[in-house]
Amino acid sequence: MRRLIAVAALAGSAMATAQAPVRDFVMAANADHRFDGDHGFEADRHLFSVAVPPGNYAVTVTLGDPARASDNTIKAESRRLMLEAVRTRAGEFVTRRFIVNVRTPALAPPPANAPGGDAVRLKPREIGSFTWDDRLTLEILGPAPALRRVSVAPVEVPTLFLLGDSTVTDQPAEPAASWGQMLPAFLTPTIAVANHAESGETLKSFLTELRLDKVLASARPGDVAMIQFGHNDQKAQWPQTYADAATTYRAYLRTYIAELRRRGVTPILVTSPERRQWGADGHIRPSLGDYPAAVRAVAAEAAVPVIDLNADSISFYEALGKDRAPLAFNDQGRDATHHGNYGAWVLARDVAERMRAIGSLARFVRSDLPPFDPSHPPAPETFRLAASGMRSSERPAGN
Predict the structure, then answer these.
(1) DSSP β-bridge partners for residue 57
(2) pLDDT value at residue 43
(3) Could you give the CA distance from residue 350 to residue 307 in angstroms, rounded to a whole number?
(4) What's the CA gap between 386 and 79, in Å, rounded?
(5) Whole-number Å distance between alpha carbons of 79 and 52
(6) Cα(16)–Cα(215) distance, integer angstroms
(7) Helix/strand/coil for 345
(8) Largest CA distance in the chain
């Protein structure tokens, strides 16, 4: 169900030129909710949404207020973090640019008598969500937000596809969060993040639900794909999607790598973040069996870069200690698998840091970010991120 609260209402109109189809919107303070069917936009106090075809879009925003200081956080689609705590003084205005990927479930129908389908097989919770609709949606948040102008234009940039499960996906509602939806805030506006991960997914189900087909149909030479599965693949009690770490799990990873490379896409393997389970010795007790080692082995064998989020997540939890580590997790720590905003933010910051060490990806990481070490995370007690208006007490699938 859609439920967003807003910040500034729309006053201007859309415009486009044949050569540069930029759509420009000027926001007016204290205006009522508005929908314009001709130009396909709507806005209310904390929401801006405009109808666009699938693709990557450069979004340029002007932030500030002539009479007061402002503090702005912007999320796109299903809570993808784009800008974090951008502050202005009274009378100061700043412009920021970021890239938003928009998609629908549609696939080109297969030829007559050929297997396949014409749409991704969405789960019930995904139907009608901001992730899969035909709009570009922004949530404008913060203690004193002040959005003045929004410009939206299609753009040709590389795409970073994320393939994975509930620990990667754009979790649609507070308080759950995943590292994939925090990652855009740490990257430059020269790459789009297309998060195709979904809760409960495995390497097998990602295939059978045509999610890999969607990625491959959208991918172009020069794109990048990060692949992180394991939490659900290890579940022998899910016989249709279980994949043995020594055999089928590795075979499926090789298949994904081959399909991506065939299309000129650079594959990156990511080991799954560990669950928060402590051993008697005061250290995290591994719960993912041989799956992280299998990822590392396939990466070495196929000469694919690997981001070892499993090892880094253990360093992160142990740095916090048993008493404070729950502060990184969903549902006030009662969920030992899925993260809250703080934990997701730290893991995304770690992924961005690991991208710097991969030659082809370093240019996509913001140059103003200081070095990051997961064994020295920021204090959870002082972490603040403006919360979205969408909330749910339901645990992510696959828990």
Answers:
(1) 100, 154
(2) 66
(3) 9
(4) 11
(5) 18
(6) 29
(7) helix
(8) 66
Cβ neighbours of 89 (radius 10 Å): 12
- Closest by CA to 352, choosing from 162, 138, 218, is 162
Strand runs (DSSP E) across 37-134, as ranges? 41-43, 47-51, 55-64, 70-76, 80-88, 93-102
Q: Over the Cα atoms of the chain, what is R_g?
A: 21
Of the candidates 326, 314, 230, 317, the one whose C-alpha atom is nearest the C-alpha of residue 272 is 230
Looking at CATH, the fold of the domain delimited by 1-14+22-156 is given as Jelly Rolls (2.60.120)
**Tokens standing for residue 18:** 């044949």
Q: Are 20 and 150 in contact (CB under 8 A)?
A: no
Tell how strand 159-164 and strand 192-195 pair up: parallel
Q: What percent of the chain has pLDDT over 70?
A: 90
CATH fold group of domain 158-399: Rossmann fold (3.40.50)
Residues 60-119 pLDDT 10s: 999 999 999 999 999 999 999 999 999 999 999 999 999 999 999 999 999 999 999 999
Pairing of the two strands 47-51 and 192-195: unpaired
318 phi, psi to nearest 5 deg: -70, -30
> Whole-angstrom Cα distance, residue 226 to residue 68?
42
Where the chain has pLDDT below 70, the residues are 1-20, 28-41, 43-45, 398-399
Cβ neighbours of 111 (radius 10 Å): 7
In one-letter notation, the amino acid at residue 83 is: L
Tokens at residue 272, please? 């799954």
Single-letter amino acid, residue 342: Y
Q: With beta carbons less than 8 A apart as the criterion, state whether 102 and 55 touch.
A: yes
pLDDT of residue 16: 39
Q: Give me the residue spans of the domains in the chain.
A: 1-14+22-156, 158-399
User: Cβ distance 148 to 64 under 8 Å?
Assistant: yes
CA terminus-to-terminus distance, the chain: 22
Q: At what angle do helices 309-320 and 341-356 cross, to 10 degrees?
A: 130
Q: Count other C-beta atoms under 10 Å from residue 393's C-beta.
A: 8
Amino acid identity of 291? Y
pLDDT of residue 15: 37
Cα gap 365→323, rounded to integer Å? 33
